[in-house]
Amino acid sequence: MRVFFNAIIIQIFLSAYIYWRGWQGLPDKKYIKIPYAAIFGIELAIYFIGFFISGTGLLGFEALHDLAWVGTTWMIFAIYMTGLLLIYDLFKFIDKKRKIFPASLDLKAKKPRLFYFCLSLIIVCGVMVHGNYCFFHPVVTKMDLTIEKHSPNIKELKIVVATDVHAGYLIDKSIISMYVDKIMEQKPDLILLVGDIIDYDAKSLYEQRMETEFLRLKAPYGVYASTGNHEYIEINNEVEDEKILWLSQKGGMTVLRDTAVLIADSFYLVGREDDKCKTRKSLPDIMKGVDRQYPVIVMNHEPHRLQEEVDAGADIALYGHTHNGQFFPNNTIMALSSKIYNTGIVPENMKMRFMYEIPFGYKKKENTHVYVSSGLGLAGPQFRIGTISELVVLNVKFNK
């Protein structure tokens, strides 16, 4: 339903608004207006062809990749372009009521309309180019953590954490290859993939033989994963848990599904099922056999109810999911909603889904080191505007 809503709002109403505002400023020349109209018509056709045919199996990977790229890129363009054009309309409305501009400047005339439209176009395209650059150049966030617990065989541990990879049609094999290179450059002792490793469709993984890239992930203490909400999205008649099974059977990683494992007789790693899992266990149930004298690291994709990990005695709790809003103004909305949530005036059972205690970054919560990553990949448009694509490197020391 949300996808359909986006299609209607973005592809019809916003596009129509942008089209009309641009049309009003264009010179009355057929050689200008016909190509202008064609651009909007072609984009609309491309989007709805992809929207209605993508799940039929009639299109191959390349076609679906291109259709998805056009549709999601236009979505960002339409949102920002609409925002700037609304500012023009707002000033036009104010000027009509209070005459804030000189009489020589008629905001209804073609020239100022065209100038502002072109200026907006340049600004939006510039912002999008920068946002795309930020997406393709992940930031490596390094943190030094000290755990005051005994780890018999390991005194120092380099953990590389990646969340929200979203491998699929948009984040394709070539991008995954870049991610794997980036991870392996860090020379990790342990690799953790904290949910939403796969985007929507398992078919895209088979079509691209994506396992050849994931199998390049190697670390002395292993490659572990936990599930995210996208692992539970089943489309195109997928077998139940198909994406999760692909990760363990094809992708070469150990998926911890409400499971705790003791690694090198030195520390525990816990992987929680995503909230979407109907049989999800409570953390105390998962950790019944865990000796808390050893360090405990918990992977939990969605950063809701952080106190659960704190109360369970986790030394490090790792999350993703939020993307830190992915692009402006979502990041600002998320930051403001976090401040509201942290006042305590909104009960947990009444908070909105984008309200998080920590939408992004690090916090020491009692004795637990909490980190919420903005994600290595992202869902949909390949633009990081006001946010970063992030790989997290934790240099952990065990002191006792």
How would you describe what is shown here?
By secondary structure, this protein is of the alpha/beta class. It folds into 2 domains: 2-135, no CATH class; 139-398, 4-Layer Sandwich (Purple Acid Phosphatase, chain A, domain 2). It contains 11 helices and 12 strands. A hairpin with a 2-residue loop joins strand 10 and strand 11. The radius of gyration is 24 Å and the shape is globular. The termini are far apart.
Layout of strands and helices, then pairs:
Elements (H helix, E strand, L loop, with lengths): L1 H24 L4 H24 L7 H38 L11 H27 L2 E9 L8 E7 L10 H13 L4 E5 L8 H6 L2 H4 L8 E4 L15 H8 L4 E2 L3 E5 L3 E5 L11 H4 L9 E4 L7 H5 L4 E4 L10 H13 L18 E5 L2 E5 L17 E9 L2
Parallel strand pairs: 1-12, 2-3, 3-4, 4-5, 7-8, 8-9, 9-11
Antiparallel strand pairs: 2-12, 6-7, 10-11
Helix pairs in contact: 1-2, 1-3, 1-4, 2-3, 3-4
Summarize the structure.
This protein has 400 residues and is an alpha/beta fold. It has helices at 2-25, 30-53, 61-98, 110-136, 173-185, 203-208, 211-214, 242-249, 283-286, 307-311, 330-342; strands at 139-147, 156-162, 190-194, 223-226, 254-255, 259-263, 267-271, 296-299, 316-319, 361-365, 368-372, 390-398.
